[in-house]
Each structure stands twice: as structure tokens, then as C-alpha cells.
Amino acid sequence: MTKQPVTYAIVTPAHNEAHFLPAVIASLTAQTILPTAWVIVNDRSTDHTAEILDRAARKKGFIKVVHRSGKGDHVLGSHVSEVVKEGLHYVPPQMDYIVKMDADLVLPEDYFEQIFKLFQDDSRLGIAAGKMYTQYRRRWIMERYPDFHVPGLCKTYRKACFDQIGGLYSLYGWDILDCTKARMLGWTTASFSELAIRHLRMMGSKGGMPKGHIGHGRGMWATNAHPLFVLGRALYRSLEPPYLTGLFIILGYVIARRRGEPQLQDRALVRFLRKEQLSRLMGRKLKEESLRIKSL
């Protein structure tokens, strides 16, 4: 019997990404397994993002560009999940996998070929990605996070898992909650060091690293993270370049608390999340943590 080809669709939110898009488009269109559809949502960009995307769509039939218009500020967090949800309306039905990918990532040309093999080898793998590398002082340094976490920058969802978790949360910290919900339901989630993704800007650096870490802290409030874990995360991030900026995570958490920003209300998921966090603090998941700074 002839094996059926893998089908997948990508949704990419893009806001003022003209500087990065040519490299990102070249990376995606060179994949050994091309997507059925790549839906790029231009979120009210004011640079040349629209022109670049429209030109790419004319050249490649699988690229679909959605232009958002009207007033509104581009903010991180829950806004991103709302933009992705809009893009999902244009995804063809019956896909095997759904991918959320940012507009500042460069993938190896066999990235999706390799990641689908990993999914096929593990029937319980629900969400996966490679590891993120960002350039710092002429070196590509791996962004540190545990192997069971899949950052929101690039996530491949098995469609069955995506449907079971109910898609994306409309909440700051959605990219933590989707993986946590998947694990709570019996799926596995993983990021693989053998698949290197080049992140063209440092994680959370859009608007400056302090602002990015403040956003991270706000996300930890929104997900109802354990306060001890928030402190541990801030200290952990302060030990990587640019050094000490991770302490802004605490500031973001305090700001969100004082403002009374929305929090996750699913008590079962909160309990599961905090149990995992305390296990990490006590070193029970130490073998899955990225403690050393690695580079390509």
C-alpha cells in the first residue's frame, strides 16, 4: 500500500516583520515536505510586511495572506492567540497537524520531515518543536527551557491533540497552558535539541528584553503559577544573557497582580500546573531541564 502523505497547515501572525520575512519565506518554501496551506495574518503592519507577503503569495499557491485592518495596538500575550485563531478559519479541514509559527524563525530545510518522523515514532506525542537558538555576540545560543516545554514561537500540534485540548487559550500564557493541558490529558510534549530553529530576534526581545520579561511575569500571573516558581524562574533567567534582565519577571508578576489582570480559572489545570512546577523546583524533572548554555 502507498503511504498517505502527511498534511499540515501553518498559521503565522506577523506585525512589522519586513526585516525578517525574506529569510523566513525562503526557509519555509525550501522545506522537503511543503505545507498544504501557510496562512499568514498581517496584523496591521506599518512597514513593508504587506507587500512582501502579497508578492510571496503570488509566487506560491499554498500561501494565503490575511490582512487585518482597523485601529488597535499590537500587544503580546493573549492578542497573539486571537490573531492565530483568526488565521485558523482559513486552514483546510482534515489536516494531520496544525503549526503555529512566528514570522522571525528560520528552519532547516528538512525540519518538518524530521519532526513528523518523531510524531510517527510516538503515538502519544501531542505537541512538539525543535530547540530555539538566538544570536548573541556572533554565537547562536540555545534558549533555555525544559525538554517538555514547547515555546509559543513554533509549535506543531497533532490535530487530535489540538482538538482535545480545545485549541488555544485566550489568555496571557496560552503557550504554557496548551502544553500543560495536553500533558494533563495524557499526551506528551517535547522540544528536540537535534532540530535547531534559528530565532532571528532574542525571545521576548521585541520592545526590549526587560519588556519581554515583564510580559513573561504577567503570563505567570495569568496562568496562576506558583509564587515560588515565579521567583525561581526569574533567578534562572537572570543567569543567561543579557544577564540580570530575568529579574523583570518578578516586576511583571507584581504589575499584573496589582492590576487584577485575568487569571486561569480551571482549578484542575491550575493544580496540575503547580504540581509540575513544584516538582521542577525540587529537582524531580532535573534531567529534562536545560541548565547549560549551549551554542551551535
What does the model show?
InterPro entries: Glyco_trans_2-like (IPR001173), Nucleotide-diphossugar_trans (IPR029044). One of its GO terms (molecular function) is glycosyltransferase activity. It holds the Pfam family Glycos_transf_2. Belongs to the glycosyltransferase 2 family. The chain is α/β, with parallel strands linked by helices. It folds into 2 domains: about 190 residues, Spore Coat Polysaccharide Biosynthesis Protein SpsA, Chain A (Alpha-Beta Complex); about 80 residues, no CATH class. Helices cover about 40% and strands about 20% of the residues. It is built from 10 helices and 9 strands. Strands 1, 2, 3, 4, 5, 6, 7, 8 and 9 form a 9-stranded mixed β-sheet that branches. A hairpin with a 2-residue loop joins strand 6 and strand 7.
Question: What does the secondary structure layout of this molecule look like, with pairings?
Answer:
Blueprint lengths: L7 E7 L6 H9 L7 E7 L5 H11 L3 E6 L9 H11 L8 E5 L3 E2 L4 H11 L3 E12 L2 E4 L11 E5 H6 L9 H11 L3 E12 L9 H14 L4 H12 L9 H12 L7 H15 L15
Parallel strand pairs: 1-2, 1-4, 2-3, 6-9
Antiparallel strand pairs: 4-8, 5-9, 6-7, 6-8
Helix pairs in contact: 7-9, 8-9
List keywords for this structure.
single chain, 296 residues, alpha/beta, nine-stranded mixed sheet, Nucleotide-diphossugar_trans
Shape: globular
Q: CATH architecture of the largest domain, please?
A: Alpha-Beta Complex
| CATH class division of the largest domain | Alpha Beta
Taking the sheet with the most strands, its summary is: 9 strands, mixed
